[in-house]
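If you are new to this repository, start here. Below is one unmodified record pulled from the training split, so you can see the exact layout before writing a loader.
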Amino acid sequence: MEDRKDAVSLRRFEKILRKSWSDKTSALNDIWVPSDPGIGQSDVTALVVNDYFGGRILRSDMHDGSISYCNELEGKPVVQLTATEASINQAHNYTYVERDEILHGQQGDSYTIYPTHLRYSILKHRVDLGFRHLDDDKVKLYFAHPTPKRVELRDTEIFIESELGIELQNPFYDRYREDVVAMDKGIMAPYSSNADGDKNVEEDLRDILSSSGLLSVLPKDSGRMIGSSMEIFYNSEVLNRPTYLIIQDNSIYEHIWLVRYATERFGSADEFVEWWKSRHDKSV
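And here is the target side for that same chain:
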């Protein structure tokens, strides 16, 4: 990836990075949530930034007693891409640190089930996959799925994007939503009263309108899928756009409404990926 340094802007890198973070790359995986993805990511993020952009890695002691890592790059004295973790203004006592000290030191290994070197390997692999299609003209599909399954289907979204080089517009995590943060932290239950409900629906409709089509996952035991059903109807019936359905519940695979409105139906994400690849055409 040495040749990427000049070709990749930090802004483009950060966009791919945010979708590459997960509980498996976080040192605080027990409290990590997709709506606040920078939690516990500073050590492995600093390593991957160093892979792509060079420079030196800095360790900072925070006023609250915690430790954070950032990067010193040419022309950019301090680069901290996990800004949700802590403000740079709270840091003090910057010291340079070697990669091996982060990868194989004690810090980070004692409070996560994933050791640092494994978390780094997972994050590096995901970022590399994100850059596989860096220069492609991306197809964008709206990603409709039920609220209670939003966390587990985040990995499905990342898998499809990295395999196919398409962009999935996620209504829960591709823009900041206070209700999703509250749900992820267990403060609010799905389908609770939401003061921003009208705003969220309007933004979802705009996202569908700005996409080339829609991909929806209908999981087993998903419960109510009122929102996803409305989105499928709007995309197919109103906009007459391609609608791809991953139907994991065999009992509804032949449902007359799904048969009517699906451009194509699939039993799994793997089936969708293989079908898309077989087309050899990334345009919808």
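Two things worth knowing about this chain: The two ends are 31 Å apart (CA to CA). The longest strand covers residues 56-62.
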